[in-house]
Amino acid sequence: MSLLQITDLSLSIHAYDILKRVSLTIDAGEIVAVTGESGSGKSMTALAVMQLLPGGARASGSIRLDGQEILTLPEAEMCALRGAAVGMVFQEPMTALNPVKTIGDQVMETILIHKAMTPIRAEERAREVLTRVGLPPDRFPLSRYPHELSGGQRQRVVIAMAIALRPKLLIADEPTTALDVTTQAQILDLLKGLVQEYGMGMLMITHDLAVVADMADHITVMRHGEVVEAAPTQRLLTGMSHPYTKMLFAASDHRVTLPAPPPPAPLLEVSEVVRDYALPRTRLFAHPGHHRAVDHVSFALNRGERLGLVGESGCGKSTLTRAILGLEPVQGGEIRLAGQPVYDGKRANPEIRRRMQVVFQDPYGSFNPRHRVDRLVTEPFHLLDAPPTGSDRSDRIAEMLTAVGLSPDDAGKYIHEFSGGQRQRIAIARALIIRPQLILFDEAVSALDVSVRAQILDLLAQLCSEYDLTYLFISHDLSVVRTITDRVLVMQSGRIVEQGETAQVFSDPAHPYTRALIAAAPRLPETGARRA
Amino acid sequence: MLRYSLKRALSLAISLAVASLVIFAVIEIAPGDPASFMLGVNAQPDTLAALRTELGLDQSKAERYVSWVTGMLRGDFGTSYTYRTPVSQMIADRLWVSLPLALYALALSTAIALPAGIYAAARRGKPGDLAVMGATQLGVAVPNFWFAMMLVLIFAINLRWFNAGGFAGWDKGLTAGLHSLTLPAIALALPQAAILARVMRSALLDILGEDFMRTARAKGLTRRQALWRHGLRNALIPVLTIIGLQFSFLLAGSIIIEQVFYLPGLGRLVFQAISARDLIVVESVVMLLVFAVIVVNFLVDLAYALVDPRLRTRT
Amino acid sequence: MSRNLILGAGLSSLVVLAALISFIWTPYDHAALNIPAKLQTPNARHWFGTDHFGRDMFSMIMVGARTSIAVALLAVGIGMSLGVPLGLAAAARKGSWLDELIMRGNDLVFAFPSLVIAILITAVFGAGAVNAIIAIGIFNIPVFARITRGAALSLWEREFILAARVAGKGAARISAEHILPNVANLLIVQGTIQFSLGILAEAGLSYVGLGAQPPTPSWGRMLADAQTMVSFAPHLALIPGLAIILTVLGLNLMGDGLRDWLDPRLRVART
């Protein structure tokens, strides 16, 4: 008998059909991954098992845990199962813990709420389980508060809470999406270890196909609330049957061909740049300390070149980006564009600034919700001495929108009428409209679904040849950087630890950090589904 | 925690200093010559001169300010011009009416509002919640002094459970004193309770949408357990802010309410002083009121740190 | 358009209408004494009855509405016109000395309830409606400053603001073009709420004699006059009280309704 058996699960919320006859099975000791793009219903499936669905949800079908039907179980009995027979780990570790309670209290609570042990025994078990997840009490006493821990550490606490009572089933909903590559690798190893050690079954929800290929024994692919394909991992990877699955895997490993870069002539020169932040005062009369976000960084970006910048969160890449754009002053070193310094004394030189533009990460936050597309796209005109007006202006807008694959009629619409991928296209149009010499892409595709990401990468490749783009592509996603750049810089703790041709750095990394980074990143194996 | 408290204490001291400057500036500088202001146009020159010396107007403004502040720190608030008694004595008597009244109202308001807000949040959308929302919607619209008049009409005049006014005095015992203050305190407390209940409810509802509440449910806590063990303490943080603000409104409100109940508090003192142009009394009463508000806000700041551990590690 | 909004707007308009009409017509002259007709309860000839001087209560209420609305409205005007720019400036220069100064200033003014400010002003400058406007207005400034600053701060974090900075726009321009339009909704709602609070505050000030002085009629003073007679002529206190309640209620309902209408992103509580 399987540990978890979902049969024909259908779910609707307020008359919207979310899930349509979803079925899947998990055995003890098995990891089943449910994957798909946003809106596929994978998270809802997990919430349905826990019966933590939002209000207005109507479910039908069957969910059996160890043979017991739980879909129709009354709430009180469901509470007894949650945390004891089924544990759940969520996506956002930064907000998953109660900020005003200690980690010890929160882990012990799982045990005490089920009256499984005396408080003394519960505390012992809490210590055991926190040690098991990599937070030994000598370094992380139970009296610590969540805000004193990093994202990865908080996620470990959440895992500790979920497994404290050795549940039979562990559900993990995008458990590592919000974490760095190296931390992700550690957490995934932890989860794998726990499954083997405790003999648990694990339902893992993730959009990251490389993670899926790495971890799962069994893969279920979902789309628009339906299961599109399900098979043991090896069988799926070697022989996908459904076109959607093939498309998904192909898009995950999407490669683009960039036109050859011209002979090197430096455009952007960054030399010995230092950026310090003053820390808040910890003592009343002591000098506030400094945090060095960028530590003597030097590199050159050539005309027509596509340079990548990779690093994990906190490495200083965002700070460096802002300094290059002239948004923040630097405390040391110099940044020059086409030979001219970006900073004129303390102020950024507008003449230079108009030669650079940026595309940001969040397609939903990058635009003022009250403005129409034509106004949004022409915002950089503010930097020009004589911005085009009248028909010149509308021509430019139309040209840009067409170049990014949209229609000139879209100029009159509001931003909320567009999807995430379309918004990023508009963001690219905005960056391109004043024909800057340099564009910075700051995690520009990180928030997009895999298939949309592939389209945007194609668009970039196309624009490279049409407009002779020079860009700095900042990302934590190694597989994207690998295909969209000619050269790459690797940044750690404010320093550039390695630079070189992309292919070279990825196949034969020199610096130990680069090696660790590449080793930690889950790799999508050869699937035979890649487009020629 | 110590660092945080010291920082708050410093803030308190600065606020008091600046507030005293402002009050001094308005009272002593604005009317031009306080002495002729107090005595009126028909004052005799020698009375004027005598008052000037008494008020210390021959000194410079800075000297007058310093002597005023140092006087207050010693407990000397000057002498009332109209009554010829030390202001500190007049204030002390009245303070023991106004301050207990404000605190009594604060206690009542909190005791009614917090449970009501929690109840409404726990039953969101259901009849219980709608009833509370309806009652509070009405409650916030009611002027407290009008409400006081209605209470007097019903409970004092018709039912005779309370006196229609007057203060029994603390020397007649704690219960007797509180009895005289009960109707006024209720009049003050209910409209404020309406506001506070809504704040409590909305703070809780905001918290209910937070991720850590979902984590709590995933551990096996029932909705009620999650609300009590996790939601409440977090929701208290914004509620504390409002309670602090409420005290200043309650103090001001008690000044007004005293008129309905003929209570011998600071209100009557200061209104009479305004009519009599006794600037010394006005100055002292205002300073005291502001002092009370600033101190209460300081205590609320300390309470924050007790509730929210994140504040204890930052400065 | 929710029920709240319609009901609230209806009530509020009724009161505003009464105030406006009072300039051209009232059933009787609100100041005309008519001792023989004194202390009548509401009847066909005097819809709200008469007071202890025989004055028509309905007319007095209409004219009193003018005072309440004018004072509260001007006080909101003061609060907004000074508070909003301060809040925007503080958010634009977060962490700087300007921000600290504005925040401390806010806290300081919050220590002075409108009543206390009114006491200070009246003691020195004499009583009058202008004092009430200034006292309530001054207290409104930190309210708007704080709320603007809070909303602006979260907007400054958003990427579209960063995009505007990359486009070379300075803090002042960004505050005007991007921040202010996006906080406007919040300010409209808060303005309505402060308006209703202003009505209550004005009533309290007139009640203790610190607001509009005779012969300008005000609801608060009607209540003060009614106090001694509440046992045998309760309508003298009930009528102005209900007028205040209904006006404030109407404004609050309208504020709630506006909030729901302007920001339709309803929060769905997760289980």
TrEMBL record, chain A:
Cell compartment(s), UniProt: Cell inner membrane
Protein name as it appears in the record: ABC transporter ATP-binding protein
Membrane topology, from the record: Peripheral membrane protein
Record-linked Pfam families: ABC_tran, oligo_HPY
Gene3D superfamilies per the UniProt record, alphabetical: P-loop containing nucleotide triphosphate hydrolases
ABC transporter domain ranges (all copies): 4-249, 274-518
A Gene Ontology molecular function term of the record: ATP hydrolysis activity
Origin: domain of life: Bacteria
GO biological process, one term: peptide transport
InterPro entries linked to this entry: AAA+_ATPase, ABC_transp_ATP-bind, ABC_transporter-like_ATP-bd, ABC_transporter-like_CS, Oligopep_ABC_C, P-loop_NTPase
Gene Ontology CC annotations of this record: plasma membrane
Family the UniProt entry places it in: Belongs to the ABC transporter superfamily.
CDD domains the record matches: ABC_NikE_OppD_transporters (cd03257)
Chief place where the protein resides: membrane
Sorted UniProt keywords: ATP-binding, Nucleotide-binding, Transport
From TrEMBL, chain B:
Start and end residues of each ABC transmembrane type-1 domain: 95-300
Domain of life: Bacteria
Record bears the keyword Transmembrane helix: yes
Keyword Transcription part of the UniProt annotation: no
Keywords for this protein: Cell membrane, Membrane, Transmembrane, Transmembrane helix, Transport
Compartments in which it is found: Cell membrane
Name this protein carries in UniProt: ABC transporter permease
Alphabetical list of PANTHER family matching this protein: DIPEPTIDE TRANSPORT SYSTEM PERMEASE PROTEIN DPPB-RELATED (PTHR43163:SF6)
Alphabetical list of InterPro entries matching this protein: BPD_transp_1_N, MetI-like, MetI-like_sf
Record family assignment: Belongs to the binding-protein-dependent transport system permease family.
Transmembrane segments: 101-122, 134-157, 177-197, 235-257, 285-307
Membrane topology term: Multi-pass membrane protein
A single MF term (Gene Ontology): dipeptide transmembrane transporter activity
A GO CC term attached to the entry: plasma membrane
UniProtKB/TrEMBL annotation, chain C:
Primary localization class, coarse: membrane
Signal peptide: none
A Pfam family recorded for this sequence: BPD_transp_1
Protein origin, superkingdom: Bacteria
Domain ABC transmembrane type-1: 65-255
PROSITE patterns reported in the protein's UniProt record: ABC_TM1 (PS50928)
Membrane topology of this protein: Multi-pass membrane protein
Annotated keywords: Cell membrane, Membrane, Transmembrane, Transmembrane helix, Transport
Keyword Flavoprotein: no
Annotated GO CC locations: plasma membrane
GO biological process: transmembrane transport
Residue spans crossing the bilayer: 6-28, 69-92, 112-139, 232-255
CDD domains documented for this protein: TM_PBP2
Compartments (UniProt record): Cell membrane
PANTHER family given in the database record: OLIGOPEPTIDE TRANSPORT SYSTEM PERMEASE PROTEIN APPC (PTHR43386), PEPTIDE ABC TRANSPORTER PERMEASE PROTEIN (PTHR43386:SF25)
UniProt family annotation: Belongs to the binding-protein-dependent transport system permease family.
Protein's name in the database: ABC transporter permease
